[in-house]
Amino acid sequence: MTWSVYVLQCAGDRLYTGISTDVVRRFKQHMQKSGAKFTQAYPPIAILGELECASRSDALKLEYQIKQLTPEAKRALALSWPPTHQAESEANNPHMHG
């Protein structure tokens, strides 16, 4: 099982960082308000970035490190990762379309 760290762009220009074995599934859970309390208050708009990690432990450590960053640094870091599911998250989000 491969763990990934992900960063979501949320309403109010907020960012959310989490870990999952299936980032698209987790994004959809956040969209359906069955995710974290933060994303219930600030619904996700898109997956900014996703990075696979060697283990759950590594993903948790990286998540912690990312959460210590400023929003600007988080955004820059997530956007520097190789593209994965960003387009899919935008296509599945009604908030992105008018």
From TrEMBL:
Task: Please give the residue ranges the record annotates as the region Disordered.
Answer: 77-98
Q: Which Gene3D superfamilies match?
A: GIY-YIG endonuclease
User: This protein's superkingdom?
Assistant: Bacteria
Q: Which residues form the GIY-YIG domain?
A: 1-76
Q: Give the family this protein belongs to, as stated in its UniProt record.
A: Belongs to the UPF0213 family.
Specify the protein name.
GIY-YIG nuclease family protein
